Amino acid sequence: MLSGLSWPAVAALMVAGVLLDLLLGEARRFHPLVGFGNLASVLQRRLNRGRGRLLRGALAWTLAVLPITALTAWLCGAGWAVHALLLYLCIGLRSLREHNLPIAAALTAGDLPRARFLTSMIVSRDTANAAEADLAKASAESLLENGNDAVFGTLFWFAVAGGPGAVLFRLVNTLDAMWGYRNERFLYFGRVAARVDDVMNYLPARLTALSYVLLAPTMTGKRRAWQCWRTQAPAWGSPNAGPVMSSGAGALSLALGGAAVYDGAVEQRPPLGSGAPAQAADIGRAWRLVLNTTILWLSCAAIGALLVTGARHA
């Protein structure tokens, strides 16, 4: 392991970090990722100007990511518990539930204004005039995609490099979310951030997509999830979001993707999945798929630890 931890230790710390997240939730004040976002905003304002924006973006990425990652690696010398604490600060399983299930509750209660407001807090598309099906679709898509970004990618890089690996992944993912746009302002400045995220997310995204296939509730759903992954993902703009969302939508027998409103204009996105349009109840189904995938990954880590321990004592 790059972290210097044994596999049994990694598995135990992984479980501990996830349990801390489920018990405590994200930090309400002084969240490190919020502070990092503020730092990234300052760097962007100061460096995203003039000529040479590709090099300026690379410099900004380096200044934002590498010192913090090095600091966390140094802190991990204080003991194993630091790894679990760093994973807790990076993972967002409980926050996915806290941000999405209230949308389902508002839709079920017929409170469309509240559902629109809550949805606007988690997606970049316009929700002011969104219908129930639009809001349910937005929430389900967010759950499936962020299951990888906020949970499974973090667990993958924790398994590879411990706490510093989880921190590195979340910083990279955060910068991609802030700078990785293909518009005039960020096309060159955010290119390094986008490409590094593509590379670090490549394996986690496909493991997440495979997990969604395996955890589809029926054999028909498993076949549908696999087929949607193979046929729909190549058409999606993101090389990693496509596999994750298409397989997840197929597993849930939902028709996602399609039309969405951004900055007042309707954007026709490629289809995701196959089946019925999303409804309020499907938000809970998407959350359970993410939760079950987390349990699957932790179970695989625990089984691996038992096998390694057994081999050492054989």
From TrEMBL:
HAMAP family: CobD_CbiB. Keywords: Cell membrane, Cobalamin biosynthesis, Membrane, Transmembrane, Transmembrane helix. The chain crosses the membrane at residues 6-24, 54-74, 289-311. Pathway: Cofactor biosynthesis; adenosylcobalamin biosynthesis. The gene is cobD. The keyword ATP-binding does not apply. Its main location: membrane. Belongs to the CobD/CbiB family. It is a multi-pass membrane protein. The keyword Repeat does not apply. This is Cobalamin biosynthesis protein CobD. Converts cobyric acid to cobinamide by the addition of aminopropanol on the F carboxylic group. It comes from Pseudoduganella plicata. It is found in: Cell membrane.
